[in-house]
Amino acid sequence: MRRISFLVILSTFVSFAQSEDEAMLKKIYDFSLTDSKCYSWLDDLSNKIGHRLSGSTGAAKGVLYTKAELEALGLDRVFLQDVMVPMWVRGKKETGLIIDGETKSIVQVCALGGSVATDKSGLLAEVIEVKSIDELKSLGEDKVKGKIVFYNRPMEPTNIEAFTSYGRCVDQRFYGAMEASKLGAVGTIVRSMNLRLDDFPHTGAQSYGDLPKEKYIPTAAISTNGAELLSKKLKINPKLQFLLRMYCQTFDDVLSHNVIGEIKGSEHPEKIMIVGGHLDSWDLADGSQDDGAGCVQGMAVLETFKKLNYKPKNTIRVVLFMNEENGGRGGKKYEELSKQNNENHIFALESDSGGFTPRGFSFECDENNYSKVLSWKSLFEPYLIHSFVKGHTGSDINPLTSKKMVKVGLKPDSQRYFDYHHAANDTFDGVNKRELELGAATMTSIIYLFDKYGID
Amino acid sequence: MRRISFLVILSTFVSFAQSEDEAMLKKIYDFSLTDSKCYSWLDDLSNKIGHRLSGSTGAAKGVLYTKAELEALGLDRVFLQDVMVPMWVRGKKETGLIIDGETKSIVQVCALGGSVATDKSGLLAEVIEVKSIDELKSLGEDKVKGKIVFYNRPMEPTNIEAFTSYGRCVDQRFYGAMEASKLGAVGTIVRSMNLRLDDFPHTGAQSYGDLPKEKYIPTAAISTNGAELLSKKLKINPKLQFLLRMYCQTFDDVLSHNVIGEIKGSEHPEKIMIVGGHLDSWDLADGSQDDGAGCVQGMAVLETFKKLNYKPKNTIRVVLFMNEENGGRGGKKYEELSKQNNENHIFALESDSGGFTPRGFSFECDENNYSKVLSWKSLFEPYLIHSFVKGHTGSDINPLTSKKMVKVGLKPDSQRYFDYHHAANDTFDGVNKRELELGAATMTSIIYLFDKYGID
């Protein structure tokens, strides 16, 4: 009898908590879909400021703008962290030309981040097409020397998550130039990381690794349509030539900043939960999806708590990291300062997969905390949030190494992401207001739950 | 002991069936994401043929094109069903003008389907704004007579499914003119069924009901930006006037067709499972989302079975219905002929919610069949198909009334749908190839499962 009463009381308590959480999530989603500023913040970042490549005036303006907007929210603390970032500048629009006897075909190319330029007259050479770095190595120096290496392995269309296909292709872009240079290549062209056929070249990070500077070779992305054309023409005439002209330059590192705002925890101010994205973007467009969306969603989490008058138990911090795209310096600096200041991070959530309809989260955490998340699944069902998986969470929060912490990545629908990623069409009009807001609400909701129930 | 062996055999059998189904779904998704023609069919329908409003040359071309493409698939039977459809023609682009003293502001308007035209000089009248038909009725004839009624209830942003918000707003568009006319109004303007603020007016069906023809009044949609402006100006000057010019005309009904292709069932040829969408569209754009997408996805189901050499047990039929938008005549004719021919329909699936990333299905069926569906949930998990709910399935399959049948609606992500619905921007570039293909694969998969395991 006593046991039954206890169970009744327990189940009453559980269902009360459940309905309190249901009500809170409803408030969060309602606020996000009606009153959040996140879409107008993104409008400003994209259309008033524009691209925010590390070291650019756009990046500097982005720092000032987001700091001012966070201050206007009336947070407990808004501050900047100094971070030295690389400064790479594209210069004039690049030229790519297939020269096949008398026939010249223009193709869309762009320098990869950190690449060296070509000579002013351009780089003219024969082309050797490969599908992978392994294939390149198997060809050996004889067949590669003096040529432009053309990496043309497409993203696999059959993976349901587009990020899986990206992960299986991006080695061509990141290591391609370094590996080709070791075999005497004079340049590389990499098929854009894009699942569709179009005319946008997609830039992105690449690394020369430990190569001495004199071995750095120009490396460019080519649009998927350009890659298809080049490959077709090479089958007919393997001796055709490619002319590449690029004007990029690397300058000395410059001072930039992570932007941080926080609400102090009411019970455990020393326990820190962070949320955010990266404020820098590539330079070909506004970076609305990558990662303006993640920044304004992170800001919206704190906005929502303030406007709903919710006092978190733990300190909630939005961090807008600088330099994710070509160096990751902001994330590393954040971790370095966190160690210096003996800060106790218990939770980190990054949104860096675009502002599309949210589908769920990825988690890096222990089984206890993961079970806790799974017990919240039904709370998310009304919002069509259904995917709770283990996996990579975010580049900027990756350096945080506290063992007891929970790391989370927002998982939006991934099908359209690589249509825009690092390309000239990553502009504001590609982001749907509701999809962005739903993402912000989803992030706020999981932070509310972890703040309330704690990290195991 | 015997019991254990039996369980072992049973569980081996179940897991064999499960893995066979897993393998088949993988084949279906792989085929759809690599080799299906559905995206190029949509390209042709949208870019070579264009809009397909009932009675238009586009609709006639759409019939011939899809019939020819179905024939090229080598189906067992491809045929047309005659159906008489209304023919309403918009004529020249409409004009909407707010006349506020000396200030004239152009706003974007378009006639609603079936509306009568204004006089050549246009309709000029004062405007009365209401949020609902109920509010209109409460105002009474005195306040409405001689005026243009402006219905301005926005779609609610807080519903997660955009279709819920549509359902709660669309009475203004469908019945608005009829109800206003009863109270002596001279015209109506309806806020576009659109969740965002933009300059596209969204057309759609409306009905004068049983009104005598002399009581028909011109009715137009106004863009959401236009509605906001008009509402603001009315607050300042309730006496402002609105000038509406529309040139639309209704002609006699004309002959058109449903387009049908089928694969005969290997075991139960008399049992018919249908899949499809509607071939007609509104006239302001190509109708790529509404419902070119559903048509080519339906065609892709049969394409996939043929190309994978899967022989369905039941007869699988794709039906491209004519005249869903302004009459629903195709769906009614299909049901009428089905009764005449004593056909036995056991299943119908409609895709008419856009070509966006599929999230799941809605069902109209009994509990037995619904339980069956739920037992297949895990098969769909790898494809991120998670929503299996009861609810409205499709307008074209609605007339089918066999009690023992299962009706299904494809549920794609709904957030962007009303950005395009019935508006001039419902064009091919709004459809993502992968999202369209994933929808086709999802439809093919559930038909494969119901074909294999039968309808209870």
Give the secondary structure arrangement, pairings included.
2 copies of one chain form a homodimer.
Chain A lengths: L1 H33 L3 H12 L7 H16 L4 E13 L5 E6 L2 E5 L1 E3 L11 E8 L2 H12 L3 E4 L10 H6 L3 H12 L4 E5 L27 E4 L1 H13 L4 E5 L3 E15 L4 E11 L9 H20 L6 E8 L7 H12 L3 E7 L7 E7 L2 H9 L1 H4 L6 E4 L15 E7 L4 H4 L12 H21 L3
Helix pairs in contact in A: 1-13, 2-8, 4-6, 8-13
How many domains make up the 3D coordinates of chain A?
Answer: 2
CATH fold node name of the largest domain in chain A: Aminopeptidase
> What assembly state would you assign to the polypeptide chains in this entry?
homodimer
Mean pLDDT of chain A: 96
Helix content of chain A: 25-40%
Indicate the overall shape of chain A.
Answer: elongated
- The number of helices of chain A is 13
Q: Biggest sheet of chain A, in brief?
A: 8 strands, mixed
The CATH class of the largest domain in chain A turns out to be Alpha Beta
**Which ranges of chain A are low-confidence, i.e. pLDDT below 50, for 5 or more consecutive residues?**
none
> What's the arrangement of strands in the largest beta sheet of chain A?
1-10-12-11-13-16-14-15
| Structure classification of chain A | alpha/beta
Largest interface (CB within 8 Å) is between: A-B, 26 and 26 residues
DSSP strand tally of chain A? 16
Distance between the termini of chain A: 32 Å
The name of the CATH architecture of the largest domain in chain A is: 3-Layer(aba) Sandwich
Rg of chain A, nearest Å: 24 Å
Approximately how much beta-strand content do the residues of chain A carry? Answer: 15-25%
